[in-house]
Amino acid sequence: MPHAQQLGRYHLLDRIAYGGMAEIYRAKTFDRTGHSHVVAVKRLLGHLIEDQSFLEMLVDEAKISAQLLHPNIARVYEFCHAGGEYFIAMEYVDGKDVRALLERGRQASQPLAPEHVAWIAMEAAQALHSAHIQQDRLGQALHIVHRDVSPSNLLCSYQGVVKLCDFGIAKATLTRVQTKTGVIKGKVKYMSPEQAMGRRLDHRSDLFSLGSVMYEMLTLRPPFQASAEVELIFAVRDARPRPLHELVPNVPPELVAIVDRAMVRSRTARYQSGEQLSLDLRIFLDRYAPGYRRTHFSHFLRRTFAPEIERELRQLEEFVISEAREAEVGVNLIADVLGQDAEFTQFTPLAPTPSQQSSAYTGEFQGARLEPHRLHREPTAIIVNTPTATPSVIPLDEDDLEEN
Ligand SMILES: Nc1ncnc2c1ncn2[C@@H]1O[C@H](COP(=O)(O)OP(=O)(O)OP(=O)(O)O)[C@@H](O)[C@H]1O
Ligand SMILES: [Mg+2]
Q1: Which end of the chain is more exposed for a tag (fewer CB within 10 A), N or C?
Q2: What's the gap in Å between 216 CA and the centre of ligand 2?
Q3: Domains of the chain (ranges plus CATH)?
């Protein structure tokens, strides 16, 4: 049986993904009532950490994203420095990302049904709207732009809820990867024209990107394709994808019109807010699939990924959590913006004692199937975190958010 490695307050279980920037793990943590909680841990790779200014930028961005509280945004709990490593602990979304849905669709040559596309986009648009109108404590607009609305950052929980993740991280990484040929290519595909051209962005850029993801869900083809990066940038800049009705004549024209309006090259002719976009999608759903609810999407996901769901649950159960060192919880570098009662302060690496286990431990897997944000609202004892070093506080520069 594999042993879970402790990192800060968390025990790393299986690795869900890895890339050029980070490794993503499912991880387990506990509260003093003996309940276990599953979270996602994004462990930053070594070469990023060597670059102090890059790290500071990531911390800055994490501070902003940690303040976004919305049912359709994956919560950020910590940007932690522990055991010589930097990682982000966030809400684990028990489900599949839209990239996996697209892959499944391609295998079966079956694009996503219009009602599921509308549901995913409606939830994502609501997430975007709430971030776009976010203000700081003084009531000043924060001008948050996600910058990387793409299939891999749209997570669909098996409960049927869609959660946007990686707010702000894109800004930090894009500045970093832009110099490295090849890395940017995957990112360009879902960029808005203004973003591909390196212009100043506002929130409407995210709405274009969401339109591009909708286009791909309906056709299984990204709207812009090219063999060379430069050509791809030009294709995105021109924003003239093959008309949807040519590729998929059966898609209801009302939905086609919504995608078209999200993907207009001119920002003024585009949807002006995520709210507008989500309203139009709701109207479409009410006409096209009356009574469509979260449970419909949930059933679709559970049917589509039935074998994976089984396997993912078994994998979690396999891990053994051995001794934990409470002193090694590390320092949360974004603690100053989270406040005294922040959720992370309730997390401890200490597994429950055997007596607690008999009452609470057995229920953990039902717990893990619940919506994570519901799980985390359970009353728990507060663990006082006494950091050994003062977290480095980097002042936020709001103007900087406007730049590309
Ligand atoms: N909070 C989470 N809960 C569940 N799965 C997650 C979570 N965060 C990420 N993942 C999974 O891990 C994958 C990789 O995430 P990561 O953000 O490192 O790379 P990416 O999304 O492919 O690229 P990028 O975010 O840089 O565009 C995601 O696509 C998703 O499937
Ligand atoms: Mg991501």
Answers
A1: N
A2: 18
A3: 5-93+309-374 (3.30.200.20), 95-308 (1.10.510.10)
